[in-house]
Amino acid sequence: MIAKTIFAVIATASFGILFNIRGLNLILAGINGGLGYLIVSVSTAGGAETYIGMFLASIAMTALAEILARYRKAPATVFLAAALIPIVPGGRLFNFVLHLLEGDYQTAAADGITTLLEAGAIAVGIIAVSSFTKVFLARIRKK
Amino acid sequence: MGEIIELACRAGKIIVENGGETYRAEDTMRYVCAAFGVDECDCYATPTTIIISTNHGGEALSRMMRIKKRGVDLHKVELVNQFSRTIARQPMDAAEAEAVLAEIDGAPPYRLSVSVAAAACGTAAFTVLFGGCVTHFLSGIVVGGILRLLLWHLNQIRLDYFTINLLGAAAAAVCGWLFGFAGTLVNWWIIAFAAIMQMVPGLIFTNAIRDSAAGDLVSGSSRGVEAFSIVTALACGAGAVLILLGRLGG
Q1: Residue contact B197–A85, C-beta within 8 A
Q2: CA B174/CA B168 separation, integer angstroms
C-alpha cells in the first residue's frame, strides 16, 4: 500500500508536468495525489465501498489544495487537478466499456453505475470543501 | 480607457485559454479594471467567450473576445493570478502591464523531451497502480512516451479535440497490444489503459465542478459536456481497437 502510494505520487507529479506545473508546486501536487490514493486504499482495505473512500479522499485533497493555495499564492486547481487523476475511476470506466463491448451487459451496468457513483462522490467532496472555504474566508475578511 | 479594457480582457483570456476557472477569469478582469480606477465594470466569461463592459463617467465601452484555443498550462494561470494581485496593490501604467501580460502569454511550456519523459514515467507508475508486473512497467515507459509524441504531432496539425482523443486512445490500445507481446502478456490492456490516463480530462472535470459550485452554470455544464465527450472519445477509440483485436484472435 505504501509502495503504491509512492507510485501515485510519481504518477501525479509526472502528469503535473503535462499540466505545466512548475517547481515546488509540482512536488506538492504529487504529495496531494499520494494522499488521495492512500485514503482510498486504506478505506477500501477497511471494507468500505470505494465511493466512500473517494468521497473522503476528495474532501482531504480539496482541503489540502485550498490550504496550499493560500500558502503558495497559487490557484487551488494547481494542486488539485493532477492529484485527482490517480483516484478518478478511469480503470472502472474502461472495464465498463470492455464489458459492454463483450456483450456482458449485466457486469457493464454494474460498472457503469459504480463509475457514476464514484465520480459523483468526488464531485460532492470538492463542492463541499470549496463552498465551505469561500464562506469561511468571507467571514475572516469581514472581521 | 480602450486600452484598459483590452488589457483586462487579455488577462481573462489567458486564464480561460489555459485551464483556469471561470470565476477566476472574471475576478481577474474586475481587479485589473479596479486597479485603473474604472468606475463600473461587468464581465462574463465562458470557456468559449469573454465579454467585458465598463461604464466610466457615463461613457460605456465593451469588448468581446472569442476563445478558440483551449489548452492546459497552469503555470500561466498562476502568473496571471499573481499579476492581478500585484496590480491591485501597486498600480502600474497600461504599457507596463501590457508588457507583463505579453511576457506571461509567451512563457514557454516544458520542452517536448521533458513532457515525453514525464508521460513515460507517469504511464509506468499507473501500470503499477493498476496491478501490473515488471513487464507492464517497462512496456508502459515505451508506450506512454510514444503516445505523448503522437498527441503532440496531432496537436500540431490542429485536429479537433474529439478526433485527437479518439485516435490517441486507439493508438494507445494498439501500442499496448504490441508491447504486450501481441497480446500474449497476461492483462496486456493494463499498459494501454495506463497510457490513456494522460488523456483523462482531470482538469476539465475539476473545473466543471468548481464552476458549477461557484454558480457559473453555463461554464460548468459546458465543461461537463466537454469532459464527457472526451471520455466518450477515449472509450470509443480504445474499444474499437479492442474489438478488432478480439475478432482477430488477439
Answers
A1: yes
A2: 10
3-state secondary structure of B43: strand
Which residues in A have their CB inside 8 Å of a CB on B? 3-4, 7-8, 10-11, 14-15, 17-22, 25, 37, 73-75, 77-78, 80-82, 84-86, 88, 90-91, 93-94, 97-98, 100-102, 119, 123, 126-127, 130-131, 134
**ipTM for this prediction:** 0.88
Residue of B nearest to A58 (CA): B206
Maximum Cα interatomic distance, chain B, rounded to a whole number of Å: 75
pLDDT band for A21, please (50, 70, 90 cuts): very high
A72-81, B23-32, B88-97, range with the lowest pLDDT: B88-97
State the virtual CA torsion across A56, A61, A64, A67 in degrees, nearest 10.
-110
Average pLDDT over residues A32-53: 92
Beta-carbon-side half-sphere exposure of residue B60 (alpha carbons within 13 Å): 3
User: pLDDT-derived band of residue B215, with 50, 70 and 90 as boundaries?
Assistant: confident
Per the structure, the complete domain to which residue A106 belongs is given by: 2-142
Q: Which of B82, B105, B128 is the last residue of a domain?
A: B105
CA B157 to chain centre: 17
Mean pLDDT of B91-108: 87
Question: Which of helix, strand or coil describes residue B64?
Answer: strand
Quick one: B168 and B92 in the same domain? no
Q: Is B124 a residue whose pLDDT tops 90?
A: yes
Q: Report the pLDDT averaged over residues A3-25.
A: 92
Using the predicted structure, report yes or no on whether residue B250 has a pLDDT greater than 60. Answer: no
Question: For residue A18, which residues of chain B lie inside 8 Å, CB to CB?
Answer: 72, 115, 118-119, 122, 148, 198
State whether B92 and B176 are in the same domain.
no
Q: Which residues pair with B63 in a beta bridge?
A: B52
The reply to whether B131 and B99 lie within a common domain is no
Q: Which three cell numbers stand for residue B250?
A: 488477439
Share of chain A above pLDDT 70, in %: 100
User: For position B209, what pLDDT does the model report?
Assistant: 87
Do B129 and B233 reside in the same domain of the chain? yes
Domain count, chain A: 1
Taking only residues 125 to 154 of chain B, the set having a beta carbon closer than 8 angstroms to any beta carbon of chain A reads: 125-126, 128-130, 148
Q: Are residues B86 and B116 in the same domain?
A: no
Check whether residue B124 and residue B235 sit in a common domain.
yes
